[in-house]
Write a structure and sequence with these properties.
heterotrimer, A mainly alpha, B mainly alpha, C mainly alpha, B: mainly alpha, elongated, C: two-stranded antiparallel sheet, 20 helices, NUOK/Mnh_C1-like (chain B), membrane (chain B), cell membrane (chain B), transmembrane helix (chain B)
């Protein structure tokens, strides 16, 4: 059973990618629907198994590490697999209606979409540093391709910029991996931890960790390395922006977080942890501030991603030399933030796409009258905004609560200010959109009304982001001990 | 100086040169070449460093092969994008975008 | 789970479900929407009545589950929650009737009634919350659901007022969250409990407790419009009259006052708050707000703005009452939660009627309106006399009880505040009444509309008269069981005896 599920999880995306490569857009869409059903069922099945029996290690094709590919299937990984299934299917279904099938190059959307999904699953489940690299590259290359699908010069410029940033990040990471292998002779994270327990810390391994984290931070768009993100996320087609903001940046963060939690204690330092936290805080403030000043709707949402990513990096200081319980709170808070931001931001980008479709303009001030004539689209956007502002009962609020508790528990009160100020700043840019759309100056309905199927998808995602807060204890209990190794390497 | 250290230092130097090129040069093809130089540097470190127990280690060789495949794929994608960008805009660099829509006071 | 666990949830869900249904209804579904609105309001009222009877007999209605690790979501009905829940469900019913008439023919009615129901659901949640965390949940939900109501008209002025409202309330919310999180870190997950938790507080945490108390009051004080955090309230007057009525009489300002009472009574405990030296400054602040806002009210030309400053002043009575450290004064404060709600909603309904029927907004336009609209003006007069504190109306009961409480607590200066406030009330209400009844009407009304036989639409005519009758009844029948006064005595008895 498990064997089939694992095979289904990893190989259907690749098979579908190749399959859809041979088809035009309409056929690709049809085939993709089938693939989405398979993926959702498989992810759900695996999640149920892990939530019942706990996590396990899985050697692909019976080969063991170091030559074989070993996968780590634990509660956190399957939760992210399931999250990916939810968000990616929503974006896939939305894209099927949203993207114009008549432009010839749009048929590449489906293969790229499936390669991206395959890469994401590989990263969530990857157990060794090099396979994570391959997964990351698969994600980056398909993401860049998806951004370039916009077709215009602006989209290409943004995608080239994105590609260069992503490649630089990957190389920094790979250099770190090379150093780690040179010093420890193993690529598995668990193996490195095992060696570190036996022997003293070799000189220069801090450098390896720093290189890897820096590379990953560049790919996650941590301030001040964020400048590639807003153009790329802002200019891409809305379903693509949703995928990028919700999932792609989370993949590199996920690796950075796992590295830090396993290796941070022996290889890192207090100053490094505080520095990363400080950069995250700067991202929160700077990203929100710029989001307030953007004229275009999707740029607002894109800069909001920069800000929200900042919260994630508070994981570094809040888990470094603190008590077990505080560290657990921080990990749970950040995990919830990843999930709720993924759901809310996907909902927001999809809703923004609908609004842009309806108003025929990308600008914020074109939203005048939307609340009267297009309340449904605005409502999805608004609900997603509630989670971004981390107001209750959303998942964002539960995340913020846990991070507040972790900051209080560790005595690092300065993060409290960041969390509270960040919430207010995000309210500033979200309410700016509400304000624009509540303005009543039009008497007649001149808007294009998007098909109902386009409007329902962001609503479902937004409701999930809101409802996450109410069930967050259950969700976290499935992850049992997030980011934690079980069994022997 | 051992062979492994020599390889690693050479790799590190290539990395440095590549990084400099990637950040400093403006022509996109040059940037791409710089990326490839940097990649070669990383591969050199990867193969060169773990040679401690007499004779080369087979695992990094396999990794570097995979890495080269990935680098080729990335390069190919980049070339396609740069070519298309050149056709659409007539430009070979990303500069001149300051006045464009990205905005923000950065 | 048993039925007693479900009833509070049902009471909460009725308006939540009503809100979802209303959002889904088409704009033109006028009858259906009105039916859903009134049906939900009646069901909720019935559920609250059931709980009132149950709590009186000592039944424990409650449900809880773990929401975020370490924190529980608790709904629980005690005597004090039912006071607020009862107020909101009765006035929701009346305000819904009123709003149906008020918004006839205006756009965006689905949106309005949807958020209106959501707002009531939040109020219900605030009333039934069993700990500060749950309280905060609904407190922020209230902010969000009232924003679309404040900006409902979609004019630049409304949007500006909405912005002020959001800046004030969200900042207050952030401060409150900080305080709640800190308190949770210091003392863990504290349910609301009569008598509080800190009677024998560890001396080590006393410093933190004082700071947390200040933050809590600052956060809650924004919605309760305590000086200097009251600035949003007069601006929010641009909202349609039913919203102003709801914001001022029931939902928003009362949520803040209710929260402060919860903190003093059921988290810290009256004795502990007094021992930490927190009650006296709170009383001074409340007394100052009462006088300051009354003086400001004198200078307002716009009727709704004058009423808004009157609200700022009156809500602080509640806070003054509970901070006087004595059971009698506390009864006076708590009973004012209900009395002020009933009286103030009467006044706002009437203000809305004048605006909607005659186009009157400013006080100097009101000359002679009593003859044109005798029913509405009668209700307005009763409400105004109630506010001044004329016996035997609701306001008199409040002031009498509070005065006796202040004497019992040996705080004679409070009597002076009460007298001064009553004089100021009279000074800003009597001229209005004089204009209504004793001046000749001007040549014509600014913007007159006519509806058949009654002086105004029947939807608008009856609600203020009903609340005016209630203003009289709660005063005359104050000593009967289940009157607001007896219920407040029950609450205080349970608080002080534990």
């Amino acid at each position: 059973m498990t064997l089939w599920l694992m095979a289904g999880l990893l190989f259907t995306p690749l098979a579908w990618a190749v399959l859809t490569l041979l088809m035009n857009f309409a056929w690709g869409r049809l085939v993709t629907w089938g693939g989405i059903v398979v993926q959702v069922l498989v992810s759900l099945g695996l999640w149920l198994i892990v939530s019942r029996d706990g996590g396990f290690y899985y050697g692909l094709g019976g080969w063991q590490a170091p030559l074989g590919i070993e996968l780590r299937v634990d509660g956190l990984a399957v939760t992210f697999v399931l999250l990916t299934a939810v968000v990616a299917s929503a974006c896939g279904l939305h894209a099927g209606v949203y993207i114009d099938p008549d432009k010839p190059w749009h048929r590449y959307f489906w293969p790229l979409f499936w390669f991206l999904w395959a890469g994401l699953n590989a990263v969530w489940l990857g157990g060794d540093l090099f396979n994570l690299y391959v997964g990351l590259e698969l994600i980056s290359l398909s993401a860049v391709g998806l951004v370039a699908l916009g077709g215009k010069a602006g989209a290409l410029r943004a995608s080239i910029r994105y590609l260069l940033a992503a490649l630089l990040g990957s190389l920094a990471y790979l250099l770190g991996v090379a150093l780690i292998y040179g010093q420890f002779g193993t690529l598995s994270i668990a193996g490195v931890v095992f060696r570190l327990e036996e022997h003293a810390v070799p000189a220069g391994s801090g450098l390896a960790l720093a290189l890897m984290v820096t590379g990953l931070a560049l790919k996650t768009a941590l301030f001040p390395l964020h400048r590639w993100l807003p153009p790329a996320h802002g200019i891409a087609k809305s379903p693509v922006s949703a995928l990028l903001s919700a999932l792609v940046v989370k993949a590199s963060f996920y690796i950075a977080a796992r590295l830090w939690l396993e290796l941070g204690e022996p290889l890192g330092s207090l100053a490094a942890a505080q520095l990363v936290g400080l950069l995250g805080s700067a991202a929160v403030v700077w990203g929100s501030w710029l989001a307030c000043r953007q004229l275009e709707l999707k740029q607002v949402v894109a800069y909001s991603s920069v800000a929200q990513i900042g919260y994630l990096f508070l994981l570094f200081p809040l888990t470094y030399s603190v008590s077990e319980s505080v560290s657990l709170q921080a990990q749970q808070g950040v995990t919830l933030q990843v999930i709720s931001h993924a759901l809310a931001k996907a909902a927001m980008f999809l809703a923004a796409g609908n609004l842009i479709l309806a108003t025929g303009s990308a600008r914020v001030d074109a939203l005048t009258g939307v609340s009267r004539f297009l309340p449904f689209s605005l409502f999805s956007f608004g609900l997603a905004g509630v989670s971004l502002m981390s107001l209750p009962p959303s998942g964002g609020f539960a995340a913020k609560w846990l991070l507040l508790q972790a900051s209080l528990g560790s005595g690092q009160w300065w993060w409290l200010l960041v969390l509270l100020a960040g919430g207010l700043l995000s309210a500033a840019y979200v309410f700016r959109i509400y304000r624009a759309s509540f303005l009543e100056s039009l008497e007649t309905d001149e808007f294009y009304h998007p098909p109902r199927s386009l409007e329902v998808i962001p609503m479902v995602l937004a409701l999930m982001a809101i409802g996450l807060g109410l069930v967050s204890a259950e969700v976290l209990s499935v992850m049992a001990l997030p980011f934690e190794e079980e069994g022997s390497p | 100086m051992t062979a492994s250290l020599l390889y690693s230092l050479a790799g590190a130097m290539l990395c440095g040169i590549g990084l400099f090129g990637l950040l400093w040069l403006s022509h996109l093809l040059r940037k791409l070449l710089a990326f490839n130089i940097m990649g070669s540097g990383v591969f050199l470190v990867m193969v060169g460093l773990p040679q401690h127990q007499g004779g080369p280690d087979p695992v990094p060789q396999a990794l570097v092969l995979t890495g080269i495949v990935v680098a080729i794929a990335a390069t190919a994608l980049a070339v396609v994008l740069i070519r298309r960008y050149y056709h659409l805009s007539g430009m070979t660099s990303l500069e001149g975008e300051r006045a464009s829509r990205e905005g923000g006071p950065e | 789970m048993t039925l007693t666990a479900w009833i509070p949830l049902f009471a909460l869900m009725t308006s939540m479900i009503a809100s979802v249904v209303i959002f889904a209804l088409p704009e033109k579904g006028y009858r259906l929407r009105t039916g859903v609105n009134l049906g939900a309001a009646l069901v909720k009222l019935a559920l609250v009545v059931v709980m009132v009877w149950g709590v009186f007999r000592g039944v424990d209605y409650g449900l809880s589950f773990t929401m975020v690790p370490g924190v529980t979501f608790v709904l629980r009905a005690d005597a004090f929650s039912l006071m607020f829940a009862g107020l909101s469900s009765v006035l929701w019913l009346l305000t819904t009737i009123y709003a149906v008439g008020y918004l006839e023919d205006s756009p965006n009615r689905s949106r309005f009634f949807g958020f209106f129901s959501l707002c009531v659901a939040s109020t219900m949640g605030i009333a039934l919350a069993g700990n500060l965390f749950t309280f905060f949940l609904f407190y922020e939900m209230l902010t969000l659901s009232t924003y679309p109501l404040v900006v409902h008209r979609g004019t630049e002025k409304a949007l500006k007022a909405g912005r002020t409202y959001v800046i004030y309330t969200l900042t207050g919310g952030a401060v409150l969250l900080l305080a709640i999180a800190w308190l949770h870190g210091v003392a863990g997950d504290l349910p609301f409990r009569e008598g509080g938790h800190f009677t024998d507080a560890d001396p080590d945490i006393q410093g933190s407790l004082i700071l947390i108390f200040i933050l809590l009051v600052a956060g809650l004080g924004v919605k309760a419009a305590i000086f200097p955090l009251h600035g949003w309230l007069p601006q929010a007057m641009v909202a349609p009259a039913p919203v102003s009525a709801l914001l001022h009489a029931v939902a928003v300002v009362k949520a803040g006052a209710f929260g402060i009472v919860r903190v003093v009574h059921d988290i810290y405990g009256v004795e502990a708050s007094a021992a930490l030296g927190l009650l006296a400054p709170l009383a001074w602040l409340a007394a100052f707000t009462i006088l300051y806002a009354s003086v400001r009210a004198l200078w307002q030309r716009d009727l709704k703005r004058r009423l808004a400053f009157s609200t700022v002043s009156q809500v602080s009575y509640i806070i003054l009452g509970i901070s006087l450290f004595g059971p009698v004064a506390a009864v006076g404060g708590l009973v004012h939660l209900l009395h002020q709600g009933i009286m103030k909603i009467t006044l706002f309904f009437c203000a809305g009627n004048y605006a909607e029927t005659l186009g009157i907004h400013r006080i100097d336009e009101m000359d002679g309106a009593g003859r044109r609209m005798p029913g509405t003006s009668l209700a307005f007069t009763i409400g105004a006399f109630g506010m001044i504190g004329a016996p035997p109306l609701a306001g008199f009961i409040t002031k009498w009880t509070m005065g006796s409480g202040a004497l019992a607590a040996n705080m004679d200066w409070v009597i002076a505040v009460l007298v001064a406030s009553s004089l100021l009330n009279a000074a800003y209400f009597l001229p209005v009444l004089h204009r209504l009844w004793f001046r000749e009407p001007a040549a014509g009304w600014p913007h007159e509309r006519r509806w058949g036989r009654l002086e105004t639409s029947a939807w608008l005519f009856w609600p203020p008269l009903l609340t005016a009758v209630m203003t009289v009844m709660v005063g005359v029948l104050a000593s009967l069981p289940f009157s607001p006064l007896s219920w407040a005595e029950l609450i205080v008895l349970r608080e002080y005896s534990s």
